[in-house]
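User: Round two. Same drill as before: sequence, then structure, for each protein.

Assistant: Same drill it is. First protein:
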Amino acid sequence: MTLADLSLRSLGTKLRAREISSVELTRWTLDKAEASNRALDAFIRILPENALAAAEKADRDFAAGIDRGPMQGIPYGAKDLFDVAGLPTTCHSKIHKDAVATRDAAVIEKLSMGGAVLVGKMATHEYALYGPDVQLPFPPARNPWNFERITGGSSSGSASAIAGGVLRMALGTDTGGSIRTPSSWSGTVGLKPTFGRVSRRGCFPLSWSLDHCGALTRTVEDAAVALNVLAGFDPLDDDCADVPVSDYTSGLGHSVKGMKIGIARSLLVTASDEVLAGIERVADLLRHSGAEVFDVETPPLAWFGTIIRALLLTEGHHIHEANLRSRVHDFGPLSARRLALGAAYTATDYLACLKVRRMLAQRVSAVFSGCDILLCATTANAAPRYSPVPDPFNPQGPSMTNPFNVTGNPAISVPVGLNSEGMPLSVQLIGKLFDEKTLLQVAQEVETLSGWTEIALPDYTA
């Protein structure tokens, strides 16, 4: 067992008992990050001086009896869309390679105030949009389970570092699935909170109406611990919701007996046979635990894909329009071509999409009037192999993560086993708006019943 095998809770217990110091834990993490990065490229920038200074402060606070919360003294990483004062927020792009932030992002502030230790900035797809693209200033992060498979995006570095046994938690963003997709393909847990649950202030945007901030973690319990730190109202973020925050760990370990779980069949139309078999297995496990599991009817998957594509490209083009006009050749070719599509949408198109989006959200809300949780897949297949990237001018197939960026519901990807080629498979669970507590309760039951907690991380060094 290594330090990476200890949960966030266990690490916190050992730190408070002075069985290990934050400096020792941080030095181990920094060494592991440096060594693993030769293979994984999960980190754009490793921060030894900043990290050790934060670790020393955490140890001083522990010695003085000051308890700042569950992440105190524990290392984490941040996708390089989050501002950290004095450091560049590169967005994995040549254009922002030297864009030094003057203030911490809201979630970085929360973690710093809670005594957490930032050890590095993580690789992403350029502007969280499209990839992997090798024609960028930094290499794409690799999948520790198999270097011939992609990690998924756009929170690729965060997923790679967790699956690679370097970190227990790393920050990510999710506009159409960018937390949940890499989590699915790397065998990690990815929680997209409710829209507005976590502040986006200081995080470089892709789509104002679709972006969510959250965490990728090793386990569901780790996800609950992280959300306890990240969640909360930020009056400086106009889209942050002033809604009470729960103790998200308080439902963990409770029975799912009597819960109503709806299988969203219409969202599974692109799923492979192996993924569908995983869904049925999880459904059976939940039934045996006393949950009521039944099929529900949602709008078709393609409807959500059409709406999210239009909103993302229109809003993304608006954000990047000036640089597209003046520095288009400084973008990677994939993101430049994808963002260019946004210019084709009219104001009438955009307003029509907003109208349909409202209807879709109402339809999903009606489904939740009859169930507590929705069950579907996160991705249609296990991680695909590296291959020539499709033409970004051609429409992509709808993603099973898209619907819940459209509606804003909390959604989590939970690994449940390995496929016939030894790659992780996952399911996606969706909760009612602002009910992450119940979502995490069911997610942990799925994680445990599936046997995932008994599966070791990949030995990518071999």
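Second protein:
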Amino acid sequence: MSSEQLPEYLTNENINLLRKVLGDAGYTGEVWPSTNVSGRFLINLFQEGMTDPSDLERELRRRFGGVAKPRRSPQTQFHKYAIRGVPG
């Protein structure tokens, strides 16, 4: 017998937790390791025993940095009372 350990399989509940952590950190919610380095990183941390979402998010930000949030474009259409004033 080999002394290497088999990988711990993730349940749907585990995957949903990891997706939420990715989404809360500003990344896509895709966890699959073949398409997402940050997802693979979270899976590795989870399988090593780190299961607290705040700890996972902190490590994700530490490793990859924060994700820039998209800037909101200035609103071009104003509410009808913004220019005319409130009717009296």
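Residues 12-64 form one domain.

User: Perfect.
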